[in-house]
Structure formats: C-alpha cells, structure tokens
C-alpha cells in the first residue's frame, strides 16, 4: 500500500491523536493527513514499510538503485550529497553557475574548490557544461578532483551529455553528482531526454518544479555502489528536519502514482508545446529560443527581448499587469516561462496571444547585457576560510580589490556573481549595479552593503 492510501485510511479512522501536530487533524483540507511518526505511517528517517515502498517505486521510475524522498527541496539533497560523498580538504570541481546550495555544501564541508565554466550566450544565459570543458579543466589541474558537481538541465533548460560525462568520470574514478533540480520530468517521454539518475552516482531532482508536487518536494537518487549509504543517511539526518511533513510526502506518493502511467499527460504536454512554438516565425521583434530536444528542454520557454526596445523585466511586467500572466524569471534581455504537464491548452493560448499582441507594439533595438564571462575571479582563500575571517561591511564601490566574505547572486536562478574568498572586481560590481538598475533581484547584500575580510 502507498503512503498516500495509508494516510487517507488513517484520516478516516477513529484513532484519537494524543500526539503532534497541535491541530489534531480537527481542521479541513491537508490537516486531515498531517501526521507525525506513529505506528502504521512509517518514519522518513528510518523507513521500513509504506515510505520505504514508495521510495523503491521512485527508484524504479528513475532507473536508480536507491531513492530518498526529500521535503526540504533540492537544497537538502545538494547539501547531503556533498557532505556524504566528500571529506574535509577534498578537492571538488563545481560549475561556476551552480545553485547557492552547492556552494553552501562545499563551504560546510571545508572543501577545496575549482570551477567549470560553461559558455554564456548574448542574453547572459549559461549553456550546458561540456565534456570537453571538464576534460580540459582536469588536465589543467595537477590534482584530480574526488568529485564533480554539474547542473543539468540549467534553469533555462540546457542539458549536459550526462551519459558521456558519467562514463568519463567513472573511468577516472571521480564521483559524479548532478543537480537535476529542473529535470524531474526527464526520461518520461522521448522529447525529454538526458535523465541523469541512471548514470550519475547521485542525482538530486526537484519534483515540485516540473511535476505535480507541492513546493519543497524533491528526491535524491543513487546509482551504483560508489556512495556509502550509511553516510548518506546520516547526512540527510543532519540537514533534513526531524519532523518531516506528511502532507509533502503524501504529495510525492501521489506524484509517483501519476508517473507510473504518465503517457497521456506527456503526449498532451508535447502537443501543447509544439503548438505554442509555432508562433516563433510570426514574431518580428521578440525571439523564442528554440533548440533540438536533445540540447534543450522544450518545456522551458525562453523569450528574448535582446533586439527590442524593452528588457526581460519590462516584458514580464507587461505580461503580469496587462495579461495576468506571471512568469518564472526575468533578466536583462529575456524571460523564462516555466511549464509542466499540468499546464492547460488555454494557458498556452493566453501566453501565445499575449506575446503576439506585445510583439506588434515593440520597436527594434538592442538591450545591453552585462556578461558574467567578463569576470576573471582571483581566489585568495577557500570559501569556508573566508567565512571564518573577521569581516566588515562597506559600499560596493569601496569593496573593489578587497576579499569578499559574502556570496552575491542574481536570483533567480541563484548563481553567484561574487563568491566568498575571491577578490571583488570592477566587472562584478558593475554587473550587480546594472542588475539593480534593471530591477533584477540581488541576494547577499545587507542593506546594499557587502561584507569583506577585515
């Protein structure tokens, strides 16, 4: 029996709860299935029956050997994967555009870090990391990394060739960890390839981002025997709450049910996407970025304003205020509309018609985009070392040339412009200032100030 069915049955029983949570299941809606670890509903931190069974179903779906439900998002998975796989002072390679949780993981584990640098296009969008870049970086370093952490797909949907990368890593006895937060839907239809979980040592995926799951639902997937399962379980005990939400776990169980018979959902989804992309040739100013399905996730709709007279932020504002359409991300010269199998044909049609109308009102132009490729960071110390130094706050303009103890990100997607332990450059400060002017959210500053080594 699944966890979902078990909770449903429990909610209908006559069992009186002299235990947590305090609402006592006396309220309607999700409260009825909000439980704690009592006999019959299992324990996420020591699963033996219904949760263990659902985790086995999850592993089968993702062609992995072990699966762990997560109720703290992919953040928990990234932290636990790095903590369990590596030891203090190990050398690891990560993508420069990794999510901040990856950076937090290497900081907490006191690791020595090197960077993989994906290409960045004219819109400032990071492309997928290539095997060639990985090989080149490893050949440049005198020391072989113990692990590599890559992101596939990227926020905007660009895939790595995870099979080739995994084969190379394993030939060199290097662990491969894949942050697949934006790819939970991969592998369930031929138009969504490059699922990492059947080749990478650890894959972390956010079920809630692209599948019908409540926010915070994710999974950690393990393939092979290179990862010590005891260490992984201990790491999850450290980073995940000791009171996991049964409402969220129920959502995962429900999602597993759907994924076991997914084809109608995915066929309709692909039909809707193909119909939407048909407007690409009808637009005179806006550009919809299209790639082959083995290169980019078609479900991540990227609309470029690069050669118009408005920014991506301004386009998002028009869609929000005039057409009541809210998009996922907006930046200097593009926005991202994130879609899933639950999007309706009507929703796609609304976006399509809105873009056609907006496009007709735009003029040709060119939006200036500060490219992070221009930053050449100078590393003075490891991230964890910078975090232990006495620090002081100062204005951005006064911080140039000093060593940062702050991580400054443009959010979303949360990739850093400035990393602790690095010298702050004019280029990085310029990007942050330009982002603020464009009304792009900047994280890591404290009332506009940045922390530097004292």
TrEMBL record:
It holds the Pfam family OKR_DC_1_C. Keywords: Aminotransferase, Decarboxylase, Lyase, Pyridoxal phosphate, Transferase. Its cofactor is pyridoxal 5'-phosphate. Residues 392-432 form the Orn/Lys/Arg decarboxylase C-terminal domain. Residues 3-253 form the Orn/Lys/Arg decarboxylases family 1 pyridoxal-P attachment site domain. InterPro entries: Orn/Lys/Arg_deCO2ase_major_dom, Orn_Lys_Arg_decarboxylase-I, Prn/Lys/Arg_de-COase_C, Prn/Lys/Arg_de-COase_C_sf, PyrdxlP-dep_Trfase, PyrdxlP-dep_Trfase_major. One of its GO terms (molecular function) is transaminase activity. SUPFAM superfamilies: Ornithine decarboxylase C-terminal domain, PLP-dependent transferases. It comes from the Bacteria. Belongs to the Orn/Lys/Arg decarboxylase class-I family. This is Aminotransferase class I/II-fold pyridoxal phosphate-dependent enzyme.
